[in-house]
Design brief:
Elements lengths: L8 H17 L6 H8 L3 H7 L3 H24 L5 H16 L3 H9 L1 H8 L4 H16 L12 H17 L11 H10 L10 H4 L1
Length: 203
């Protein structure tokens, strides 16, 4: 099971190699032999860590999600204003999702695998993203900012919205605006979904 995965140097190399091969070739053209070769390990080493390709791919995708969230955290960790911080979470998410080579490759070549993995079988990724957003949402409360619902529910609402943006790039939403404009747009729209009494409204 991915949740029981023990990560060591070889596992890290295999996960890195899997993500690199998937981004370059897609799922159908990526074999376990290709991943082992790219990682510089034997197939026996691979099979000691992953029982099959599906298990390895799932672990690699979850690894990508964690790295994705780490980038967002890096962008916001020094922002003190809670609403500005949360708006920056949104902007960074949009910047990372739109034009993401791995997502574009897999959606183009392996949509029949990716769509179930991100929807009906996406509970692991949902849980990781929800936990991240709950932590961010709870930062709002000490600043006197009320949420429209309990933090886990607000987080899931945003995760499901983000999932839609990930899977369907075509949109009338102005997501190609410059970062400052996109942040203002986020504060005026998306934050209203989870913040009951925004700062601008209280002022």
């Amino acid at each position: 099971m991915v949740s029981d995965l023990v990560v060591d140097t070889y596992t890290e190399r295999l996960l890195d190699a899997a993500l690199g091969e998937l981004a370059q070739h897609g799922l159908r053209r990526t074999s376990l032999a290709d991943i082992a070769k790219a990682a510089g390990v034997s197939q026996a080493t691979l099979y000691r860590r992953f029982a099959n390709r599906d298990e390895l791919i799932q672990a690699a995708v979850i690894r990508a999600v964690r790295e994705f969230l780490a980038v967002i955290h890096e962008q916001v960790e020094h922002i003190d204003d809670p609403e500005d911080r949360f708006a920056t979470v949104f902007v960074t998410f949009i910047q990372l999702v739109r034009g993401n080579h791995l997502v574009e490759r897999l959606m183009a070549t392996d949509a029949d695998y990716v769509l179930p993995a991100l929807t009906i079988h996406g509970e692991h990724m949902f849980a990781i993203g929800r936990a991240f957003l709950v932590e961010e949402l709870l930062r709002l409360e000490p600043a006197g900012i009320s949420l429209t619902a309990p933090a886990p529910e607000c987080a899931e609402l945003l995760i499901r919205l983000g999932q839609s943006m990930l899977l369907t790039e075509a949109t009338v939403l102005p997501l190609d605006r410059p970062p400052d404009e996109l942040k203002a747009y986020a504060r005026a729209t998306f934050l209203r979904m989870v913040i009951a009494d925004p700062v601008e409204r209280r002022a």
